[in-house]
Amino acid sequence: MKRLLTLLLASLLLVPAPAQDKNFHIFLCFGQSNMEGNARIEPQDSVGVSDRFLNLSAVDFSDKSRKSGKWYKALPPLCRENTGLTPADYFGRTLLEYLPEDHRVGIVHVAVGGISIDGFLPDRIDAYAKTAPEWMKPMLAAYGGRPYDRLVAMGKIAKKKGVISGILMHQGETNTGDPAWPQNVRTVYENLLRDLDLRAEDVPLLAGEVVAADRGGVCASHNALIDTLDRVIPTAHAVYADGCTQNFDFLHFNAAGYRELGRRYAAEMLRIWGIPYTPVQDYRPATPESPLVSGAGAVTFNLRAPEAEEVLLSAQFLKEPVPMVKGRGGLWTLTVTPEKRDIYPYNFIVDGVSVSDPLNREIFPNETFKASLVEIPGPRWPKAEPALYEVRDVPHGKMTHCTYRSSVLGAWRPLVVYTPAGYETSGRSYPVFYLVSGTTDTEETWFKVGRLNTILDNLIADGKAEPMIVVMPYGNMGSTPMPASMAATRMYARFAEELTGCIMPYVEGNFRTVNDRDHRAIAGFSRGGGQSLFTALSHPDLFAWLASYSAYLTPEMMDTCFPQYAADPSLLNDGFRLLWYGVGSDDFLYPQVVENRNYLDAKGIHHEDLTTGGGHTWMNARTYLAETLQKFFQ
Question: Are residues 512 and 623 in the same domain?
Fold first, then answer.
């Protein structure tokens, strides 16, 4: 490291340049933090810099390695000490790849993080500086309190050595949506032309877009104004930022984003000069990501559909589908911020047809349409307590995909089994929890949507749940009658036969299980809840722990199939260690669940209840799962 620093300092020796070299193309660069450079300089950014790429330092460095008004090899940082990589770095590098060997590129760089366009207007800077935030004042002071004047002063020095060939600007985040901004930019541009005796036709203005909508840019709406600059400044050119990757704050670009944006500045300058530009593979825009989640919980969805006339986002955190916005290249984009962090299903509706997100590998396992999944984390600042479904640095259990033979259905059937951390080496036997998914769900849904494994890993690690085996069967019995109909009892009975006659023997024959009722629990969501209730009530000798998530049995079912419990509630009260119901107040099954609970109350049957907000969702199902995992086998 010490040798590397020595080499870098040696490379910053003063570089002489001949006076008035017409092949020395100098560019004035000004703006705010994205021109200043917010990304960390990486090793690749300080190697391979041509001796033909120069920087006229606008400030003194405290280590005396650079002095204001002197030319140096353009090694980053170009702006000031402790600033980062900028678009200008790869702008200059790229230009030199296309210019003849006897041409050079110079950069004059003045930028202040967070500064308004007013900070570059000489008649406004004094008033602006008085109200500037404290953190900005040292940056302004580095330029003598007047950044525009410093830029002009450096421009006059630069003109002694070469030709000012263009002006690069990256500013606008602070002025997002300000309708006066384009005209103020024009004033700055015309002031520079006047004060440096330049002609607009010889010195174009290249204005870079801010972090774009497809990358979730928090100021992306300002790009619409940047793109109109050529209407007020005929020699202005917008440099698109679509696909340029961003930092975690979704305000600044990261190092890769600055490299790509710098190349695009260069591509536009080469186009103006009439020099063909052919980017290599590394220079192509990044493939859109979707979903793209910011630390603040905002989510950007992207879908490339150039022929589509309308694209809507449909998601469980939205009351109704929301239109997406079509951008360049047929990329449809939308950024939204769900009110609550959780894991949500979503999909796109393209000209009336529902499609999953082709850029997202997280899919909602289902028998019919496969929606996509997005996880909304808690706020990054301050750091939120992680949710139970978030993976933590704890011992992790194992998910095993199994296949068993069903004599009830006459078919091979799938099964997913969770074994807790340490199962393979402990030698002990474990209680078993049979967890059943809902209508149209598969055996994988409790794993991939319910996050059973992650929730239980965390609860076990926290000492809040007993280590257990969890068995997740596929609950489809060939038909699903309406749960309020007596026909549903025949399906429930068939599932009970399947579970007790096929699944349990397979599990107990292939895993180390404790095979008595006190060490067996069963629960399910929606249809799976009805199946669980019916199975446990039919086999009280096999199960002591029972929970229903958003499900019920009707009073008619209870009276017809289980009259013994109404006649003698002690059969349940003394036999079951837990009978538990959870439902959301907005669940379409809420009235029936309440009716089932009221029935139990009227018969003197003990039960525990949890009523949450929300509807018939997997967000609620995860809540009920976490609650009951902490009760089973305690």
Answer: yes
Residue 316 in domain: yes
Same domain (yes/no): 552, 517: yes
CATH code, 362: 2.60.40.10
User: What pLDDT, on a 0 to 100 scale, did the predictor assign at position 295?
Assistant: 75
Q: Which of 252, 519, 607, 616 is catalytic?
A: 252
- Condensed to tens digits (0 to 9), the pLDDT of residues 200-211 reads 999 999 999 999
Distances 93 to 106, 281, 308 between C-alpha atoms, Å: 10, 16, 39
Counting Cβ atoms within 10 Å, is residue 440 exposed (0-12), middle (13-18) or buried (19+)? middle
CA-atom Rg of the chain in angstroms: 33
The mean pLDDT value for 101-107 works out to: 97
Q: Are residues 105 and 227 in the same domain?
A: yes
pTM of the model as a whole: 0.81
What is the predicted pLDDT for the residue at 381? 45
Task: Note the pLDDT tens digit of each residue in 475-509.
Answer: 999 989 999 999 999 999 999 999 999 999 999 99
For residues 611 and 268, give the distance between their C-alpha atoms in angstroms, rounded to a whole number: 60
Annotated active-site residue 249? The verdict is yes
CA angle (315 as vertex; 313, 320 as ends), nearest 5: 75
Q: What's the mean pLDDT when you consider all of the chain?
A: 93
252 an active-site residue? yes
Looking at the fold, whether 183 and 331 belong to one and the same domain comes out as no
Residue 9 placed within a domain:
no
Between CA 558 and CA 566 the distance in angstroms is 8
For 231, the domain range is 21-283
> Where does the pLDDT of residue 324 fall: very low under 50, low under 70, confident under 90, or very high at 90 and above?
very high
Domain shared by 417 and 449, yes or no: yes
Number of domains observed in the structure of the chain: 3
pLDDT tens by residue, 577-617: 999 999 999 999 999 999 999 999 999 999 999 999 999 99
Tokens for 219?
Answer: 């100021």
Distance from C-alpha of 43 to C-alpha of 559, rounded to nearest angstrom? 75
Catalytic residue among 33, 57, 294, 532: 33
pLDDT band at 152 (very low <50, low <70, confident <90, very high): very high
Q: Are 158 and 29 in contact (CB under 8 A)?
A: no
Residue 383 binned pLDDT confidence (cut-offs 50, 70, 90)? low
Concatenated DSSP letters for 305-334?
A: -TT-S-EEEEETTSSS-EE-EE-GGGEEEE
Whether 545 is in a domain gets the answer yes
Q: Are residues 274 and 127 in the same domain?
A: yes
CATH of the domain at 41: 3.40.50.1110
Catalytic site residue from 118, 178, 249, 609: 249
564 near 594, Cβ under 8 Å? no
| pLDDT score of 282 more than 80 | no
DSSP conformation letters of 121-152: -TTTHHHHHHHS-GGGHHHHHHTTT-HHHHHH
* pLDDT of res. 6: 39
Q: How many CA atoms lie within 13 A of 353 on its CB side?
A: 7
Same domain (yes/no): 274, 356: no
Does the active-site annotation cover 65? Answer: no
- CB of 380 closer than 8 Å to CB of 482: no
Q: Does residue 7 register a pLDDT over 70?
A: no
Establish if 233 belongs to a structural domain: yes
CATH number for position 475: 3.40.50.1820
Do residues 308 and 421 both lie within one domain?
A: no
